[in-house]
Design goal:
By secondary structure, the chain is an alpha/beta fold. It has helices at about 15-20, 40-45, 50-65, 70-80, 110-130, 145-150, 170-180, 195-205, 210-215, 225-240, 260-270, 285-290, 315-325, 330-340, 350-355, 365-380, 385-395, 415-420, 430-435, 450-460, and strands spanning about 1-5, 15, 30, 90-95, 100, 135-140, 160-165, 185-190, 215, 250-255, 275-280, 295, 345, 360, 405, 445. It has 2 domains: about 90-110 and about 225-420, Rossmann fold (3-Layer(aba) Sandwich); about 135-220 and about 430-460, Rossmann fold (3-Layer(aba) Sandwich), CATH 3.40.50.
Length: about 450
């Protein structure tokens, strides 16, 4: 398997290089040169298999012969042994055709664990084999940072710097990062929003000298291995509900569009997907784009679903590249222009291709609160505000047949919002309770790419 850049200006690379680099040298995102696939019989055979086995099968399609299947199987077993539910991603039925996929049974109580626990082991394996080390710079809107710190803390071959927007994530989200005591972990509270953090990350990854001197890499969903790992639960949940013999739809709370694009990956691999409904909060860049074709940045609004407070969804670039017939130069022009403040007008044919599988709907704060109330009263299930956004979107835009709603975080990660909405405090898992007793360690920093790069260089000894 070879991987190419969405912007067409970088040479193809292998799976390992794509995983370790994160971003392509031309600023684009890596995507397979050709899509692998599963037959209907192979997908049907996933039924009843342990989650780790399905993960190894899916990842193997993308790793090719660069990583032995036995090693992939071992890494998947180890990664998902860290989860506190034997199914890893259990399904809970909410209605006759609505099911909740609980993605929050990992170490940091959020869906990012599903990919991050595997990515940490994958990185360790290839770094040790190559005699290399890496420095991860992570930009988080809340959950990626905690999952990354949990996965990479204490690992001999990796240093990690987690950036988060100061004052714009929940206390529990912050503490999953800032209470780490290992020497290979640093946390930065950036004076800005998540889009500022993400812009700093992309600037740093485009700095060839910095990348060379510290072995810079990324674990955000710009890293294609993250997307592949997240596509696995589309297979396991859909097969449990009758795929491939019938299509299954999904409702996905989305900010950076990594979880949504993972569904597209599953679809390209052969999974029959009815529709992927992208639910956004007031930061509705994706919902607006799927409705009108205009990808236009708005002002970031602070909401009770802070991981989705994003007006620049990085993985939309991958979908744009695919929908425009893999037009690398066109994608480069569009997204370099977007970074400079220009809007992107999606070509009509590309919008038709996108909306053949994707739809979008935004949910305001009042509707998010109301959905947490309704879900609890109607089903007895308590959900976090991000999951509530997807449920609210689905309530207004139902799909025919079974639909899986991705529950992206445990309600205990947002206790104030959940209690304010429902009048009940969520039960706090032991993992989260322990955080309250630990001292925090983080440093404030300006939203300045140069200052962050200097910090990373000093920390990594580059």
């Amino acid at each position: 398997m070879r991987y190419i850049s969405t912007r067409g200006g970088s040479p193809p690379v292998g799976f390992v290089e794509a995983v370790l680099a994160g971003l392509a040298p031309d600023g684009g995102l890596y995507i397979p040169e050709t899509w692998p696939g599963f037959t209907r019989e192979e997908i049907a055979a996933f039924a009843g298999r342990p989650y780790a086995e399905v993960a190894a099968a899916v990842l193997g399609r993308f790793a090719g012969d660069e990583i032995a299947q036995g090693d992939l199987a071992r890494m998947c077993r180890e990664a998902y042994a860290a989860f506190d539910h034997p199914a890893v991603v259990p399904l809970v039925q909410l209605g006759s055709d609505v099911f909740l996929a609980e993605l929050f049974h990992g170490p940091s109580l959020a869906f990012k664990d599903v990919a991050m626990q595997l990515l940490a082991r994958l990185s360790d394996h290839v770094l040790e084999r190559a005699g290399r080390t890496q420095t991860i710079l992570c930009a988080t809107s809340g959950d990626t940072g905690g999952a990354a710190v949990e996965a990479f803390r204490g690992r001999a071959n990796t240093r990690i710097v987690a950036m988060f927007p100061d004052g714009r994530i929940s206390e529990v989200q912050r503490r999953f990062m800032t209470t780490a005591v290992e020497d290979n972990v640093r946390c930065l509270a950036v004076a800005g929003d998540f889009d500022a953090c993400q812009a700093i990350l992309k600037t740093a990854l485009a700095d060839a000298e910095l990348q060379r001197s510290v072995g810079l890499s990324a674990v955000n969903s710009i890293n294609f291995a993250r997307i592949v790992a997240q596509s696995v639960y589309y297979f396991t949940t859909a097969v449990a509900l009758g795929a491939p013999h019938r299509p299954v739809s999904f409702a996905v709370p989305s900010g950076n569009f990594g979880d949504g694009f993972a569904g597209y990956v599953a679809h390209r691999l052969g999974l029959p997907v009815g529709r992927i409904l992208i639910g956004t909060n007031a930061n509705d860049i994706l919902a607006r784009t799927f409705r009108t074709g205009l990808y236009a940045r708005g002002t970031v609004a602070e909401t009770q679903s802070p991981a989705m407070d994003i007006q620049s969804a990085s993985n939309f670039e991958r979908l744009f590249f695919e929908a425009t017939g893999r037009d690398g130069p066109g994608t480069a022009t569009a997204f370099s222009g977007f970074a400079s403040g220009r809007d992107i007008v999606t070509p009509p044919d590309a919008l038709v291709a996108m909306t053949a599988i994707f739809a979008g709907a935004s949910t305001d704060e009042a509707a998010t609160t109301r959905e947490m109330q309704l879900t609890l009263s109607e089903t007895g299930e308590m959900v976090d505000p991000h999951t509530a956004v997807a449920l609210s979107a689905l309530r207004r835009h139902p799909a025919p047949g079974p639909t899986v709603v991705l529950a992206t975080a445990h309600p205990a990660k947002f206790p104030e919002a959940v209690q304010a909405a429902t009048g009940r405090a969520p039960e706090t898992p032991a993992r989260a309770r322990a955080l309250a007793e630990r001292p925090e360690r983080f440093e404030p920093i300006a939203a300045d790419a140069g200052k962050v790069s200097d910090y990373v260089r000093t920390f990594a000894g580059g």
